[in-house]
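ok, trying the design again with the full structure, not the truncated one.
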C-alpha cells in the first residue's frame, strides 16, 4: 500500500486548520492516518507551519509521496520532497560503472490481449456516437 503525506482538514466550518499526516493513499482526506507530522494554520498572519522534520524525512525515505500542497509547504521549509535514489552508480576500480543496487520490483512488460475485450452493444453504440460527435466538432472548427 502506498503512503502519502497530505494535509488533513480540521477546525470549524469557516476557519480551516490542517494537520500534516502520513496516510495510506486509499484513505479519505479526513480519514484514518498513520502518523501526525505537523500542522498548518493558513489564517494566522504570517501563516503558521510546524513540522517534525525528522519524521517527515523518515517517511520520505520509506517512499511516501507528498501531495502537491504538502510538497509546496515542505519546500518552503527547505525539506527535500524526493527520496534518495536506489541503484546509484558507483565507480569500479577498473573504471567501469556498476550499479550498486537494483530496484526491488522490476516492472512487468505490457501484455497485449489475445482477443479484444467483449463490450456490450449499448457501450459500443455510445462509443461510436461519441466518435461521430467529436468528428463533427472537429470538422465544424475547421470550417
Amino acid at each position: 500500500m502506498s503512503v502519502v503525506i497530505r494535509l488533513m482538514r480540521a477546525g470549524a466550518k469557516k476557519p480551516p486548520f490542517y494537520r500534516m499526516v502520513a496516510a495510506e493513499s486509499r484513505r479519505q482526506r479526513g480519514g484514518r492516518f498513520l502518523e501526525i507530522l505537523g500542522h498548518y494554520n493558513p489564517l494566522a498572519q504570517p501563516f503558521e507551519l510546524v513540522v517534525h522534520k525528522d519524521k517527515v524525512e523518515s517517511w520520505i525515505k520509506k517512499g511516501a509521496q507528498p501531495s502537491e500542497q504538502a510538497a509546496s509547504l515542505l519546500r518552503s521549509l527547505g525539506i527535500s520532497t524526493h527520496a534518495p535514489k536506489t541503484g546509484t552508480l558507483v565507480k569500479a576500480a577498473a573504471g567501469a560503472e556498476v550499479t550498486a543496487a537494483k530496484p526491488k520490483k522490476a516492472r512487468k512488460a505490457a501484455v497485449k490481449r489475445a482477443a479484444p475485450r467483449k463490450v456490450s452493444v449499448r457501450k459500443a453504440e455510445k462509443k461510436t456516437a461519441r466518435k461521430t460527435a467529436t468528428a463533427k466538432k472537429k470538422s465544424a472548427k475547421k470550417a
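Keeping the full-length input from now on. The chain is about 30% helix and 25% strand.
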